[in-house]
Inverse folding.
């Protein structure tokens, strides 16, 4: 009886420790993709909520643009997202992007690689027209090789991957 009591105690203790509050890991966003305003550790310790209401929120990186079937044309929503991405790039001159061009499975492998490249290139060219230095934006095409899912419309896209110099 004594050994079963000890076993039950140890089991209860193990469960209590396993279910107890553990300190949560603090995730630190890379400065190349951070999208939130500075936290309490920022240099502006004297800032008050009233002073912060007039500040413009920093731009964030929109990570995907979608395209119509067999198209590399930018619609108005895509242009607005690219405007936001251009502002994000301008906020930090060390930010560098790789734009990945993707397609659905319709068409041959060679055709899809070319279409993915056109999508990435048109996206990059629009950013450059908005004032982003061309040398800070690279492109790559994957064609149909890296689908986002089973739905074709999710695969017709340009994906933005942020890096630093």
């Amino acid at each position: 009886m004594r050994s079963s009591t000890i076993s039950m105690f140890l089991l209860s203790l193990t469960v209590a420790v396993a279910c107890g509050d553990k300190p949560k890991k603090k995730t630190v966003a890379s400065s190349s993709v951070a999208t939130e305003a500075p936290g309490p550790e920022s240099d502006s310790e004297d800032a008050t909520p009233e002073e912060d209401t007039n500040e413009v929120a920093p731009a964030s990186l929109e990570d995907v643009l979608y395209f119509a079937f067999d198209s590399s044309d930018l619609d108005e929503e895509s242009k607005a997202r690219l405007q936001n991405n251009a502002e994000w790039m301008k906020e930090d001159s060390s930010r560098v992007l790789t734009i990945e061009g993707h397609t659905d499975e319709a068409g041959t492998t060679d055709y899809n690689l070319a279409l993915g490249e056109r999508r990435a290139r048109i996206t990059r060219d629009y950013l450059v027209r908005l004032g982003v230095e061309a040398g800070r934006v690279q492109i790559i095409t994957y064609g149909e090789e890296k689908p986002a899912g089973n739905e074709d419309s999710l695969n017709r896209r340009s994906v933005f991957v942020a890096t630093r110099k």
